[in-house]
């Protein structure tokens, strides 16, 4: 038995207790409860999402450029600039969007870090207007998915009452 104890790592004195380095590594992290969004942020984001629609994004937040598209289409592709590129300056957009959505937008596949913009392209249609609408719908879907992934659904009072009754029944069963 003494031989087995000799293979254990040396104990360290931490806060008046002796612990092994393994225990220190395993239990040293304490998650901070304030890391998540606050209730005020949740309510503000929920209200913003309720009033948000596909046509509520002002034109001053983005700029549209057109370029020649690639792929099938014959001579039309070579002559007409139908591919639409929408660049959304995050410096203009983020003050309007709730704070808890910012990180999700910066983690999106459309984010260009060097220019701090969202770059959305579409060349699905043979018409410029169709491609611009497709870009706008992608931007709308991005903002909506960011909101749905971060904002918790509001819990109704009936649901809370149901959970409380189930909790009481579970306690009585013990």
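-> sequence recovered:
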């Amino acid at each position: 038995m003494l031989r087995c104890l000799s293979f254990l790592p040396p104990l360290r004195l931490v806060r008046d207790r002796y612990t092994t380095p393994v225990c220190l590594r395993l239990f040293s992290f304490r998650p901070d409860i304030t890391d998540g969004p606050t209730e005020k942020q949740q309510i503000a984001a929920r209200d913003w999402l309720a009033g948000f629609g596909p046509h509520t994004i002002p034109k001053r937040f983005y700029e549209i450029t057109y370029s020649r598209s690639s792929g099938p289409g014959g001579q039309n592709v070579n002559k007409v600039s139908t591919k639409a590129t929408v660049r959304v300056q995050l410096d203009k957009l983020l003050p309007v969007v709730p704070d808890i959505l910012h990180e999700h937008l910066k983690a999106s596949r459309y984010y260009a870090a060097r220019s701090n913009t969202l770059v959305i392209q579409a060349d699905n249609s043979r018409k410029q207007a169709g491609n611009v609408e497709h870009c706008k719908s992608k931007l709308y879907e991005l903002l909506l998915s960011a909101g749905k992934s971060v904002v918790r659904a509001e819990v109704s009072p009936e649901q809370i009452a149901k959970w409380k009754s189930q909790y009481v029944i579970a306690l009585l069963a013990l």
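The longest strand covers residues 83-89.
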